[in-house]
Amino acid sequence: MGLRKDFLWGGATAANQCEGAYNEGGRGLANVDVIPHGEERWKIARGEKVMLDFEDGYYYPAKVGIDFYHHYKEDIALFGEMGFKTYRMSIAWSRIYPNGDEETPNEEGLQFYEDVFKECHKYGIEPLVTITHFDCPMGLIKKYGGWRNRKMIDFYKRLTTTLFTRYKGLVKYWLTFNEINVLLHAPFMGAGIVFEEGEDRYKVLYTAAHHELVASAWATKIAHEIDPENKIGCMLAGGSFYPYSCDPEDVFFALQKDRENCFFIDVQARGYYPNYALKEFERNNFELPCTEEDVKILKENTVDFVSFSYYQTRTVSVKPEMQSAGNLLSGAKNPYLKASEWGWQIDPLGLRTTLNELYDRYQKPLFIVENGLGAKDVVEEDGSIQDDYRIDYMREHIKALKVAVEEDGVDLLGYTMWGPIDLVSASTGEMSKRYGFIYVDRDDEGNGTLARSKKKSFDWYKKVIASNGEDLD
Ligand code: BGP
């Protein structure tokens, strides 16, 4: 009983939300750099307002992030002190290939990540690497239009071949695309897509989706060829959809929303397009740009495990209901749930449901690679931060995942909570939406010393890891 002995406890970050140093070490510009904090953030992330460079009058939090680039030794030492077994982080593509289409990689970028991985191993921390966490080199956007272009598959193959070769023996857990389904909701942020006036958005989105799916399958093949020890996962912005009522219309609508979400994972985990998607393509007069070789590559290179982020479930209704906030996917307000300060509904049992649904659907090992509470922290006069609300949130979610494993038999590889160290919020660009066990002195306008300090939750998580999830008090 209990979680597996080698359960991978840890935390997760993304390059664009913590690394900073956007113009150091030969790094090129990327979509994620030019998405500003403030009102227009979403228009830009969705590809509805074009911003392909820095403009006056905007604040761009990714430029500095929390300056992990210069603080990584200190930060990883703190993760080591908490007893992390794994650290999920992402590669900034434009550090490796500054424009995306170069023939040879940028050595300084490669060296940086090698140093980071070695630093992890010093503390017995296994890196878990997201190859693309929302980022796309600006060169590929300007020249090729991002993932709408089939050429992206080749650039991605080149990138992944470089990574798997260089980091053989240092990294064995990889995720191809963070929250791949986000492409549908925030196409510029998720896939470097900017729409042209009057074009068929459906066609653009599902063409880009196909390119990413094929690229992901190629990466899986290349990873296994370079090192059979490599384990490749897909990554879903998870959270089951609940019907708002038992009206069969609501129930069926919830099923359709689940399918829309799981569509990518259905292909990555099973190796072919599900019938419901093919029928929908037909109805939309969309011809999938799928070659015979694509079919073969998808079929033969399914993922080794399925990973997902979980913040909340979503409740949907066919009737116009009050909308509730969430990570890029909103739904109706669930009257049975409380919500965070940002309106994200808190539902620990929903994590057990989601784990079970995904395990039933795919029968592959699962990995929770994001979960946590974004909250405003108060620094007391003595410098301490009493974040009991964060501890409560995590305790309940860890209890739920344990029940899913112990009572339902779900095969779960690990749990990396989101943002073990405070970082820039993906949805809002704020620093004040904090997830960490480690506080970072920086505010929403970029003021602060960037100094790190431990919150109350730091020691709590350390105890959770040391007891393999048994001591949650
Ligand atoms: C997910 C993203 C992360 C992360 C997280 C929390 O959607 O994969 O990058 O940021 O959500 O969201 P936020 O930062 O908006 O609170």
In the sheet with the most strands, the strands line up as 1-2-3-4-5-7-13-14
Largest sheet geometry: 8 strands, parallel, barrel
CATH class: Alpha Beta
Spatial separation of the terminal alpha carbons = 20 Å
The coarse overall form would be globular
Our count of helices gives: 15
Any guess at the CATH architecture?
Answer: Alpha-Beta Barrel
- Strand portion, in percent? 5-15%
Show unreliable segments. none
The CATH topology corresponds to TIM Barrel
Helix content: 25-40%
What is the gyration radius calculated from CA atoms? 21 Å
Q: Which distinct ligands sit in these coordinates?
A: 6-O-phosphono-beta-D-galactopyranose
The count of strands amounts to: 16
Question: Main traits of this protein?
Answer:
binds 6-O-phosphono-beta-D-galactopyranose, two-stranded parallel sheet, 16 strands, alpha/beta, TIM Barrel, 473 residues, 8-stranded parallel β-barrel
Question: Can you describe what's shown?
Answer:
The protein is α/β, with parallel strands linked by helices. It has a single domain (about 10-465), classed as TIM Barrel (Alpha-Beta Barrel), CATH 3.20.20.80. It has 15 helices and 16 strands. The protein has helices at about 15-20, 40-45, 70-80, 95, 105-120, 140-145, 150-165, 185-190, 200-225, 250-270, 275-285, 290-300, 350-360, 390-405, 455-465, and strands at about 10, 85-90, 125-130, 175, 230-235, 240-245, 305-310, 315, 325, 330, 340, 345, 365-370, 410-420, 440, 450-455. The strands form 5 sheets. Strands 1-2-3-4-5-7-13-14 form an 8-stranded parallel beta barrel, surrounded by 4 helices. Strand 9 and strand 10 form a beta hairpin. Helix 9 (about 200-225) packs across helix 12 (about 290-300) and helix 13 (about 350-360) runs parallel beside helix 14 (about 390-405). The longest helix is centred in the middle third of the chain and has 26 residues, at about 200-225. The two termini are about 20 Å apart. The site of 6-O-phosphono-beta-D-galactopyranose has 15 residues, from loops.
